[in-house]
Amino acid sequence: MQHCDTLIAPRWCVPVEPSDVVLIDHGVVLNDGRIIDILPLTEARQKYQPSAFIERSEHVLFPGFVNAHTHAAMSLMRGMADDMPLESWLNEGIWPAEKRWVSAEMVRDGTELAIAEMISSGTTCFSDQYFFPEIVAETAVDFQIRAMVGTPIIEFPTAWAENASESMNKASTLVHDAYADHPLISTCFAPHSTYAMSDESFVELRVFADQLDVPIQIHLHETAAEVAGALEKTGQRPFDRLRDLGIVNASLLAVHCVHLSDSEVAAFAESGVNIAHCPRSNLKLASGIAPITRYRDAGVNVAIGTDGAASNNTLDMLSEMRMAALLAKGTTGDASALSANQALRMATLNGAQALGLAHEIGSIEAGKWADLACVDLSHINSQPVYDPVSQLVYTARADQVSDVWIAGKHQLDNGRLTQIDTDNLLARSNEWRDRFASSVN
Ligand SMILES: [Zn+2]
Known about the structure:
Elements: E1 2-13, E2 23-24, E3 26-31, E4 34-40, H1 41-47, E5 48-63, E6 65-70, H2 86-101, H3 104-120, E7 123-129, H4 133-142, E8 146-153, H5 164-177, E9 185-191, H6 199-212, E10 216-220, H7 224-234, H8 238-244, E11 252-256, H9 262-271, E12 274-277, H10 279-284, H11 292-297, E13 302-304, H12 317-332, H13 340-347, H14 349-354, E14 372-376, H15 388-394, E15 401-406, E16 409-413, E17 416-417, H16 422-439
Parallel strand pairs: 1-5, 6-7, 7-8, 8-9, 10-11, 11-12, 12-13
Antiparallel strand pairs: 1-2, 1-3, 3-4, 5-14, 14-15, 15-16, 16-17
Helix pairs in contact: 3-4, 3-16, 5-6, 12-13, 13-15
């Protein structure tokens, strides 16, 4: 008998890779943070002696969700500025409140609130863009969740940096150098958008990104007004400007992409640019619906993100994945446009690929990190079960997520967060609500 840390025995296991496969009564074996074997349970019990045997007899086990785009700390602004289009939401709601209240302490508490919500709803990795990214990284490490920490770059002064140049310099030492080769943290540069960046800053960014060999992510073609405004101001669509500035390549993650021309879609496919699709944020801000079936058909890798809780207003990837699947069908008139299996793949392995982590996470395969989530399908709304993937994508709620492991660590155990004191966290969140509320009317 071979010793291992954990043997998980779910009723169903959906590995995502290979695709469209459901394993019944299999054991998933974890050791030293990684998946070491997937085999029929009877064989697993003969071969392995686990320190922990975890039986989940009415549950489906799958790779933890990869939230390809969020602003974790903005969870403290959930519901603060609703029912506004993007431009006024930013200019009248979010940016003035951030100017008044963003601090290291706010980012710490907001990121913790987001991590609690993400782990509770099955997310094991998130891609973030927010001020004080060194605090985001530190908080992710403290609560042991995997993160792609995007270091923000914006032309105007913020609580974190005076200008774009200072952002890049601070980010390089505090985040990119400090977390190089960290097992849980990857990093990237996150210029906010083309409208919040000068050409000079993009040129400087290109040099930094090449020197440090870190990817870039940016909000791009989110609204029709963004594209029209860029044409008027610069004579170029945002994507054309990025391409001319040398920012377009396979390590670019373009967030939103609601409005792309046919030639832009072809250019995305050709250059390997990834897309983070954030359907509920796009709907709530009335930005439109990204035609992801067109992008996928062209060969573009499309992942799913929630965006921040200030524009969604949750970080629940189950709901986001369902919305993506339903919108793809409704907007194309083709009920097979995005199947349940394809939606789950977008929310897991495609996200891993978009972050450059597909060799490490995103599927249940021997050798990968043990980043896993488990959903209880015994709830009335998920019964009876013909196909566990169908129930996961079309019926499951966040409160059915029973267990989450990140790098083998049992972070959610039968619905209970093992690392987070939620009473204390909620008390701090409410203190922040009082502060933010005092600056918004
Ligand atoms: Zn965003």
